[in-house]
Amino acid sequence: MDLTELMIFMNIMLIITHGKRCYVQVINSLSVYLGAGTPPTPRHSHSAVVYEDSMYVFGGYDGHYRNDFYRFNFVTNSWSQINLKPNGNGVWPKSRYRTSTTVYKDMMFLFGGHDGARQLNDFYCFNFSKHQHYLKVIISY
After folding, report:
1. Could you tell me if 115 and 95 are in contact, meaning their C-beta atoms sit under 8 angstroms apart?
2. Which of the residues 4, 34, 63, 126 has an alpha carbon 20 to 30 A from that of 136?
3. Which domain holds residue 42?
4. What is the pLDDT of residues 95-104, one digit of tens each?
């Protein structure tokens, strides 16, 4: 199925405050552009960050635990899957959901999550410039 635009009908109430004044606006429909390319499968409990002109989506759960990595470029309105190059030790984040990510400088840091059987306590970073994942630390108790 090649969807480029999806119309979602719902009631959304926006409450905007400005000083002591409060404005309420109700939106009955919202148009969402899905973009070109191949997006990730529908999923939940993934992690997403924004770096420069793109949003990056890692992992999540779609009936299977995932460790795939996608980029949505806001300028070209297109999706692409990032095929990661592991570092020299062959380190790659395992499939997971409910992980936490953040961006600092040109790196995305990924911590923990759940693999369907247990809580994960590992810590990775992804270098946007080199397209490489690095294992930083495995935290143990």
Report:
1. yes
2. 63
3. 38-138
4. 999 999 999 9
